[in-house]
Write a structure and sequence with these properties.
Layout lengths: L2 H19 L1 H8 L7 E6 L20 H21 L4 E6 L17 E3 L18 E7 L19 E6 L2 E2 L2 H11 L4 E7 H11 L3 E10 L2 E4 L2 H17 L13 E7 L2 H7 L5 E5 L2 E6 L2 H13 L7
Parallel strand pairs: 1-2, 1-4, 2-3, 4-7, 7-8
Antiparallel strand pairs: 5-6, 5-10, 8-9, 10-12, 11-12
Helix pairs in contact: 1-3, 3-6
The structure holds zinc ion.
């Protein structure tokens, strides 16, 4: 067992005590009339401290098993901070790769976890207007950013640009617009410096934690897992302490979505649908009545294949 594992173990045990002793957790059991505070946490992986290549990002990578623990710990740091700040209900969505990266047994029994795909709402599945705030963990820059570790938007394999109402977006901005349509503000995000800069430039003064400074697509100067957990905990507390400063990120409807593909054929084939317009050789345009429809459209475009089973 490595030192960092041991430290994380200790952190988890201490945090579990915090949860047990925390007034919010108690009031949940004994005083259901206490003021509710529902928090939604969407978790990606590219922005987790230490992640620099595919070696950390999927079941085939030699470091994946360790890094899904680090991803889980960064999420737990946000969960504990939210709970400490009075959260009465927390939903966590496992929103990277196969949607099965988080170690669900490490979470408190009252947490609910959204896993796997497909799911309406994508990386924000399970969110509704009853939530008070959304947090992003492990987020990253967009595919149109010239900087950023593993910068991409939804699919690094297939897409070169995703835009909403004419502006190229990060996954974070797209998801914030989805949440904004439900009246839920995004108040905190963690990830690499380029991703956080890009997100702040659109969402305004949300709390962020830079888990690493990008040096290239596949290199970074990074915090340690323990260092990032500590900062994420502090950042989430700071965000929740000024919850009323944040407004939902609302974009104009109907929403014009454009998707540019790496390859020519997807743009050509999808434009056979009468609701889709071919904008150029690699780009299609779809107008959805709201973010929910646009989100479903992205899921179909990126997730459908005729050999899907079962
Ligand atoms: Zn992502």
């Amino acid at each position: 067992m490595s030192n960092s594992h041991r430290i994380c173990r200790v952190l988890l045990i201490v945090s579990a005590f915090v949860w047990v002793l925390c007034p919010a957790a108690k009031s949940q059991a004994s005083a259901p009339a206490a003021k509710k505070l529902k928090i939604y946490i969407s978790v990606d992986m590219e922005g987790v401290a230490g992640v620099v290549t595919g070696d950390q990002l999927g079941p085939g990578g030699f470091e994946y098993e360790r890094f899904r623990r680090f991803m889980t710990n960064e999420t737990l740091a946000a969960v504990y901070a939210a709970n400490h700040s009075g959260a009465t209900e927390i939903v966590v969505s496992d929103s990277h790769g196969n949607g099965e990266s988080l170690l669900i047994e490490e979470f408190h029994k009252d947490i609910r976890i959204v896993r796997s795909w497909p799911r309406h709402g994508g990386m924000m599945a399970g969110l509704d207007s009853s939530f008070d705030a959304a947090l992003f963990i492990g987020y990253h820059a967009s595919t149109t950013n010239m900087r950023g570790v593993r910068a991409h938007t939804f699919s690094s394999a297939h897409l070169t640009r995703v835009s909403l109402n004419g502006n190229a977006v990060t996954e974070g901005e797209f998801n914030a617009a989805y949440a904004g349509a439900l009246g839920v503000p995004v108040i905190f995000a963690s990830g690499d410096d380029a991703g956080m800069e890009e997100l702040k430039s659109r969402l305004g003064n949300i709390e962020t934690v830079e888990t690493k400074k990008n040096l290239s697509f596949h290199s970074a100067e990074t915090l340690t897992p323990e260092g990032s957990c500590e900062r994420i905990g502090a950042g989430v507390k700071a965000a929740l302490a000024r919850l009323h400063d944040f407004k939902p990120y609302v974009i104009k409807t109907p929403v014009t979505l454009e998707i540019s593909f790496k390859n020519y054929m997807p743009a050509q084939m999808i434009s056979y649908l009468r609701s889709v317009e071919r904008v150029d050789s690699h780009t299609i345009r779809f107008v959805g009545k709201d973010m929910a429809e646009v989100s479903d459209f992205v899921d179909v475009v990126d997730g459908y294949s005729p050999d899907l089973t079962p």
